[in-house]
Design goal:
The protein has 25 residues and is an all-alpha fold.
Length: 25
Amino acid sequence: MMKSAEVLRLEQVFKSFPATLRGGP
């Protein structure tokens, strides 16, 4: 459970991918 923070960060990045492709913030 030490990678929880990293996993959360990765999830945020993955969720930001589609937004970036769309031209979001």
